[in-house]
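### Sample
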Amino acid sequence: MSEYLLPHRRHVLAGLAGTAALALLPGGPARAASGQVVVSNWGGDWNDRTVKFVEKPLLEDKGIDVARDLGMESDRKAKLLTEKRIRRSSVDVVHLNSADAYEMHNQGVVAQLDTSKIPNYADIVAGLGAPYFVPWLYSGMVIIYNTDKVKEPPRSYADLWKPEWAGRIGLTNQLYFNYMMMGSLVAKGDMTSVDEGKARLMEFSASAKPKLYAAHQQLQTGLANGEVDIALNYKARGLQWTAGGMPLGIQYPDEGAISVVFGACLAEFAAHKDTGYAYLDAMLDPDAMAGLSEASFYAPANTKATLSPELRAKIDFSDAERAKLKYPDYAYVAANTAAWLDWWNQSFARS
């Protein structure tokens, strides 16, 4: 996912969000709740696809004004928490991953959903949703490899520790939490033993000498120019890069892929809850989900997404793979993720 925003555009969007916030204050201009929705999302190609397949055809073309507040997920979370004290949110719908949605729900800043107002919610993939979270797209962390250079790829996360892969593996700082859960899996067979997994990760750093990139795009470049032959990233990313012409294969790890679920929540103190619900239902529209999945290669959360059998087989997981997907313990992640990031930056990233 692209989480970047051009500075001049960010200022404009921040102003839009600020205007929405002013409408909530005494003396602020009145706004029709049915006419606007303020959406906090990532920028870049992720937002471009959101506009193309959901926001424009299903909302803006039907008379709903979509104001966009784009930026990093950490910024979105901070805004929700800051505005909690005034019980007024400058945004209505917040795009989050499932772990961050859990954290924000525990903080009381995203709403318990009335799913009767989200008809498409009835068709979501079992296990992806939550009473406060609308799942949208999902994937899993797999082993992506250059088929010209790797004829017999690692078959598991644990295989990456083998000497033959030293100096050939690329990681990105954006997925630090996935790698820390991977260390836990390799160390103890679960994803709630990260403290034990840290030692395995430091062994991995010393022996495999992985190259660490700032973001997905830089990791893609590293694969393309031969700096690395293997990347640990989401299946959707590997398929995107393959579609761009790179000779890549994807190996589903024997342990089961660590899952990621992207979706959205309704802000607890949203000003425009009616249009917020309309937005959440539009996200799950079967045709919109098909277009998004074809463009992004993320698997759709709606079981009725109108994908061709060929496309579904390519981007989704088989029944056996889906059964082995590893879902994080969200309470554990919420309690520890800040400390994990500090450890990653101070220890692994410096090793």
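Residues 1-33 have pLDDT under 50 and may be disordered. This sample (Extracellular solute-binding protein) is used throughout the tutorial notebook.
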